[in-house]
Amino acid sequence: MIKILFICHGNICRSPMAEFVLKDMVKKYGIADQFEIASAATSTEEIWNGVGNPVYPPAKAELEKHGISCGGKRAVQLQASDYDYYDYLIGMDRMNIKNIERMTGHKRGDKIKMMLEYAGIGAEVADPWYTRDFNATYQDITIGCKAFLNYLKEKGEIFI
């Protein structure tokens, strides 16, 4: 079982989009049973009294445009123990990586990477909360997820 945790600031836009895009991809490849895929936040801004907010409506709408449901997803915060539990912690931007390192006590490397690094791009996945361009974020996430699956294929962890 390959365990992946996507991480962004609030866990209402980018990381849940990545979670559900990858879930959709592995389902279509018929390998969903080989994965555990989740997402989390580095902040508590979207968590109130222990209950996380749902996926931000424009992010949810973007996923739905592509036939992907994210129903039931609520924001959760990254825990230090997630480093030991997950095989891959994938952040969306440099600040996410910095916060992942701080929160887990581990440095970036094979286990902690930025999403578009798998595509050989040093770019960040822009936060659509600020850009308002949910389609551009979806496109970057799709590129990153495809590249991540290719990475796993090249490592011999999956066969597609």
Explain how this protein is built.
- With 160 residues, this protein is of the alpha/beta class.
- It has a single domain (2-154), classed as Response regulator (Rossmann fold, 3-Layer(aba) Sandwich), CATH 3.40.50.2300.
- The protein contains six helices and six strands; from the N terminus they run βαβββααβαβαα.
- The protein has helices at 14-29, 57-65, 82-85, 94-104, 128-131, 134-154, and strands at 2-8, 35-41, 47-48, 51-52, 88-91, 112-114.
- The strands form two sheets. Strands 2-1-5-6 form a four-stranded parallel sheet, with helices on both faces. Strands 3-4 form a two-stranded antiparallel sheet.
- The longest helix is centred in the last third of the chain and has 21 residues, at 134-154.
- It is globular and about 40 Å long.
- The two termini are 15 Å apart.
- The mean pLDDT is 96.
- CATH fold type: Rossmann fold
What is the helical fraction, as a range of percent?
40-55%
Number of helices: 6
Span between termini: 15 Å
**Count of beta strands:** 6
Spell out the CATH superfamily.
Response regulator
Give the overall average pLDDT. Answer: 96
The first-level CATH class name? Alpha Beta
How are strands sequenced across the largest beta sheet?
2-1-5-6
Summarize the structure.
This protein has 160 residues and is of the alpha/beta class. Helix content is 41%, strand content 16%. The protein has a single domain, classed as Rossmann fold (3-Layer(aba) Sandwich).
SSE inventory with pairings:
Elements: E1 2-8, H1 14-29, E2 35-41, E3 47-48, E4 51-52, H2 57-65, H3 82-85, E5 88-91, H4 94-104, E6 112-114, H5 128-131, H6 134-154
Parallel strand pairs: 1-2, 1-5, 5-6
Antiparallel strand pairs: 3-4
Helix pairs in contact: 1-6
Keywords: Hydrolase, Protein phosphatase
Organism: Velocimicrobium porci
Family: Belongs to the low molecular weight phosphotyrosine protein phosphatase family.
